[in-house]
């Protein structure tokens, strides 16, 4: 068994979903995503048992491009995140009616396919292809099934597309340049490359453009809030839950090991940008009137901290960043789903139109509360583990980084609880709010279960990712 | 060699069809004939070049590979004619015959071994195009397009001819092998480079590169849509392949000054083409400017002629196949409309999802998004150009790729976000077939790039 099977299943799933017709599409998509989840767990077992799950086949002779998929702990955990969130996301959409559902669900599976490929590819060009392929489905999902005024949505989505494409094309130049140097796109060859200071400088920033736009890191975040707001909730979940992790993962996998000297040189700037994102995101989130936009900015703040963790270049920072990526993925999907639940009943995203829901829907109120608390990194939740580790690593570099980064907890608690108060508490709303249905409960409970389980017992993840992260750090430290 | 003869025979056969009044059968028979010619062409694909008629014609890997591409494109273009000329059924054999002769000119242009043959080829191709441009004789726009193209084109032909004369004056021969051997000697008469430059200018006109591009938008817009398809796919590909062959064979070591000119023309074409395309509302005009910018990209192959012929073949195939698929959709959409404005494409995503998907795919290919042939074309091109150490040129090309997304996506947005303004019109099966086959070939090109890349 090897990892290419998973990609094939997802791709076949996308086509089958399309041909299943509008009525069956969602169920077929769910089925395939569950199969993919099962398969990735099986792959994990095989990997732990020491089996070779990699796939290697020559594809193009000149330039030499290899269809090479490599699974190590880091790739596998990202793969698991992708395949675990996809069924949840698909299942969460069951309460909604979509026009042309077959294309919608087919695009979701296709996007999962591309994202899984991005996490697995170990050939630079193959990785780039998957990276770009993931962009097309989300573009159409946001454009066609999004909400709000068409003209505004169009503007937001096109801006997003051009931004991300522009960033990634610079990454492509960097890869082509590296290819001319080494004659190979394979990651193990690129890890061995010795570049001069200037070359590292250029390549580092070319990569950075691609990743900073995707993550997004300040000042490349301007596309984010609008797209999160305008995209359908499923699209927002895919974007914030999985897609932005592609950028963070790529920093760890490609950027810092290939250009270690530049990464070390710019370490303060990069951590500074990450922390600026934390503070900026939190402050802007405070002033949002639209629930989805508020969550978008809170997400910006969180990923700022993750990015800072990635660039610390020490093991705690890297581990914390990965843990935080996973927990953020689950929590943010849960929060956007909560926003969607409210939208289904009240047909609004304006916080001002909400309030007084708790008395009508106690079950929803408690589930939402747990998600809010997880998002502000309450101890025993998964987020706490990640956030604490990242802050600890920042402290090792400079105490002020940790202090400023720590504002995320304080500010986060402030705006999230304030949001909760305005949305849920207060006098009973005049509009009727039916409590969560069974399938909504299932989604939320599953997410919460994951958050608590790994919050209390993160060891399996640590054990899985530590060897990969050590390997990355060894590569970074090969040139002093 | 036999390919060329067979094509001309097929063209004459087309004219005979009119006499025997077998117009209905013409398109299927021509398509079958062209497939046979394609088989003939493949059988001529050999490692060692063969020379015919005192080196007038040289059949090499290069010429057979490109001829194969031209024949495939012609098959598509002829098949599209089935529906397009529905209302001109009396003249259909003329139109088809002209296209076959155009193909003959194209094949002559890539397999010339003598500048006289080259000029003959270019004239056969151009005259066929002049006729096709004004083939809608009741439309004032088509007449204007034909006349404009003819005036400008004959000017360019004159410049090419003058260049050939100067080269002859300098070298005393039309044979390109002899010229290339002589050009290695130290002492070159000054009119040899002048002749080369004139030839180069004439060819830049034919491929519509800046600053010789002014004819393209008007001619593309005015001509009947199918003729525009011929110009923007077949004619462009032929011209760039010929230019490549001229530069490669006659000018073995390109001087730095000449490289600089190529770089400047390439940058200017990309940038002007893209920026002008952003503002167009007529799809044909937009594709004209997009074609100008693609000409700029293709010119980059001239910077490393020793190795880049495979890249050029790949780029031209990907570009032309995407163009064919796009034009099949445009022909379908604008069949009953007066013009080709973007508004006509509103709501195509709802009315005809398959056609909309195909047009989207072909535009994504032209923009260079992965898995489509266009992406790999750009990748190989950039890789080659970086290898020849023109990193700045590649950076500018990348910035241009980003700009191009702007206008390609304008069309995609129109298809998917606007409401349709007319009821669905039935699609002729042949448009479906051509569009689907062309885009499938384009994607196949993306999945198996080595197949085409290793031909040369």
TrEMBL record, chain B:
MF-aspect GO terms: NADH dehydrogenase (quinone) (non-electrogenic) activity; NADH dehydrogenase (ubiquinone) activity; quinone binding
This protein's GO CC annotations: endomembrane system; plasma membrane
Topology class, membrane: Multi-pass membrane protein
Broad class of enzyme this protein falls into: translocase
Bilayer-crossing regions: 25-42, 62-80, 147-170, 190-212, 256-275, 287-306, 312-333, 354-378, 390-409, 430-453
InterPro entries: NADH-Q_OxRdtase_suN/2, ND/Mrp_TM
Subcellular location: Cell membrane; Endomembrane system; Membrane
One protein family per Pfam: Proton_antipo_M
EC annotation from Swiss-Prot or TrEMBL: 7.1.1.-
Superkingdom in the source lineage: Bacteria
Biological-process GO terms, alphabetical: ATP synthesis coupled electron transport
Keywords carried by this UniProt record: Cell membrane, Membrane, NAD, Quinone, Translocase, Transmembrane, Transmembrane helix, Transport
Role played: NDH-1 shuttles electrons from NADH, via FMN and iron-sulfur (Fe-S) centers, to quinones in the respiratory chain. The immediate electron acceptor for the enzyme in this species is believed to be a menaquinone. Couples the redox reaction to proton translocation (for every two electrons transferred, four hydrogen ions are translocated across the cytoplasmic membrane), and thus conserves the redox energy in a proton gradient.
PANTHER family on file: NADH DEHYDROGENASE (PTHR22773)
Family the UniProt entry places it in: Belongs to the complex I subunit 2 family.
Quaternary state and interactors: NDH-1 is composed of 14 different subunits. Subunits NuoA, H, J, K, L, M, N constitute the membrane sector of the complex.
NCBIfam families: NDH_I_N
Name this protein carries in UniProt: NADH-quinone oxidoreductase subunit N
Organism: Flavobacterium seoulense
Source lineage: Bacteria, Pseudomonadati, Bacteroidota, Flavobacteriia, Flavobacteriales
Gene: nuoN
């Amino acid at each position: 068994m090897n990892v290419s099977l998973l990609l094939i299943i997802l791709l076949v799933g996308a086509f089958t979903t399309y041909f299943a017709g509008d009525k069956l599409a969602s169920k077929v998509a769910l089925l395939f995503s569950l199969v993919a989840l099962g398969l990735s767990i099986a792959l994990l077992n095989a990997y732990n048992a020491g089996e070779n799950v990699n796939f290697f086949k020559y594809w193009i002779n000149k330039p030499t491009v290899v269809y090479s998929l490599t699974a190590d702990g880091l790739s596998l955990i990202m793969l698991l995140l992708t395949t675990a969130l996809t069924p949840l996301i698909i299942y969460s959409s069951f309460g909604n009616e979509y026009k042309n559902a077959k294309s919608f669900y087919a695009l979701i599976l296709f996007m999962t396919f591309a994202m899984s490929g991005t996490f697995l590819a170990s050939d630079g060009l193959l990785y780039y292809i998957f990276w770009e392929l993931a962009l097309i489905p989300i573009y159409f999902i946001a454009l066609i099934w999004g909400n709000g005024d068409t003209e505004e949505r169009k503007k937001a989505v096109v801006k997003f597309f051009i931004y991300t494409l522009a960033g990634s094309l610079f990454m492509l130049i960097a890869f082509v340049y590296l290819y001319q140097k080494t004659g190979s796109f394979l990651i193990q060859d690129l890890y061995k490359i010795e570049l001069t200071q200037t070359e590292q400088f250029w390549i580092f920033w070319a990569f950075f453009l691609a990743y900073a736009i995707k993550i997004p890191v300040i000042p490349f975040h301007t596309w984010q809030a609008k797209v999160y707001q305008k995209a359908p909730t499923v699209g927002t979940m895919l974007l914030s839950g999985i897609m932005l992790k592609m950028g963070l993962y790529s920093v760890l996998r490609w950027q810092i090991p290939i250009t270690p000297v530049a990464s070390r040189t710019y370490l303060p700037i990069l951590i500074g940008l990450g922390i600026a994102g934390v503070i900026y995101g939190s402050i802007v989130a405070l002033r949002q009137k639209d629930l989805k936009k508020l969550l978008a900015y809170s997400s910006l703040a969180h990923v700022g901290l993750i990015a800072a963790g990635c660039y610390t270049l020490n093991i705690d920072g890297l581990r914390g960043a990965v843990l935080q990526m996973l927990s953020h993925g689950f929590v943010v999907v849960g929060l956007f789903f909560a926003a969607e639940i409210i939208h289904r009943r009240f047909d609004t995203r304006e916080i001002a139109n909400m309030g007084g829901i708790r008395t009508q829907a106690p079950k929803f109120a408690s589930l939402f509360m747990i998600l809010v608390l997880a998002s502000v990194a309450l101890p025993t939740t998964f987020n706490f583990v990640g956030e604490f580790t990242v802050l600890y690593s920042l402290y090792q570099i400079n105490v002020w980084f940790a202090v400023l980064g720590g504002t995320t907890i304080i500010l986060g608690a402030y705006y999230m609880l304030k949001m909760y108060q305005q949305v849920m508490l207060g006098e009973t709303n005049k509009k009727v709010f039916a409590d969560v249905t069974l399938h909504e409960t299932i989604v939320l409970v599953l997410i919460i279960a994951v958050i608590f389980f790994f919050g209390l017992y993160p060891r399996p993840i640590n054990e899985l990712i530590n060897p990969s992260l050590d390997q990355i750090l060894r590569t970074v430290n090969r040139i002093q | 060699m036999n390919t060329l003869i067979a094509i001309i025979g097929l063209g004459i056969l087309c004219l005979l069809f009119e006499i025997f009044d077998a117009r209905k059968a013409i398109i299927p028979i021509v398509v079958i004939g062209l497939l046979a010619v394609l088989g003939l062409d493949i059988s001529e694909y050999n490692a060692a070049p063969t020379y015919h008629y005192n080196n007038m014609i040289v059949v090499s890997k290069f010429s057979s590979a490109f001829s194969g591409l031209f024949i495939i494109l012609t098959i598509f273009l002829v098949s599209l004619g089935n529906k397009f000329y529905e209302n001109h059924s009396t003249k259909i054999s003329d139109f088809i015959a002209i296209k076959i002769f155009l193909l003959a000119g194209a094949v002559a242009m890539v397999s010339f071994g003598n500048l006289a043959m080259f000029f003959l080829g270019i004239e056969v191709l151009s005259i066929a195009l002049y006729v096709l441009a004004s083939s809608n004789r009741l439309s004032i726009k088509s007449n204007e397009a034909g006349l404009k193209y003819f005036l400008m084109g004959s000017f360019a032909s004159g410049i090419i001819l003058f260049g050939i004369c100067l080269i002859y004056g300098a070298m005393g021969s039309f044979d390109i092998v002899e010229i290339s051997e002589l050009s290695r000697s130290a002492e070159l008469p000054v009119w040899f480079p002048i002749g080369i430059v004139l030839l180069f200018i004439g060819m830049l006109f034919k491929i519509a590169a800046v600053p010789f591009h002014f004819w393209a938008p008007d001619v593309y817009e005015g001509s009947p849509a199918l003729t525009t398809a011929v110009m923007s796919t077949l004619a462009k590909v032929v011209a760039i392949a010929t230019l490549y062959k001229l530069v490669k064979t006659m000018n073995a070591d390109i001087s730095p000054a000449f490289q600089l000119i190529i770089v400047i023309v390439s940058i200017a074409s990309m940038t002007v083409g893209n920026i002008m395309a952003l503002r167009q509302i007529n799809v044909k005009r937009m594709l004209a400017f997009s074609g100008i910018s693609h000409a700029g990209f293709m010119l980059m192959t001239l910077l490393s002629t020793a190795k880049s012929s495979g890249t050029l073949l790949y780029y031209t195939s990907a570009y032309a196949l995407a163009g064919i698929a796009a034009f099949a959709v445009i022909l379908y959409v604008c069949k009953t409309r007066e013009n080709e404005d973007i508004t006509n494409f509103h709501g195509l995503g709802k009315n005809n999802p398959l056609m909309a998907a195909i047009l989207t795919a072909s535009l994504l290919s032209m923009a260079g998004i992965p898995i489509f042939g266009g992406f790999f074309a750009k990748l190989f091109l950039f890789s080659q150009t970086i290898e020849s150490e023109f990193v700045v040129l590649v950076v500018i090309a990348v910035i241009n790729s980003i700009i191009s997304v702007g206008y390609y996506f304008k069309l995609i947005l129109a298809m998917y976000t606007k409401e349709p303004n007319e009821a669905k019109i039935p699609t002729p099966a042949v448009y479906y077939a051509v569009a689907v086959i062309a885009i499938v070939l384009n994607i196949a090109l993306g999945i198996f790039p080595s197949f085409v890349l290793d031909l040369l």
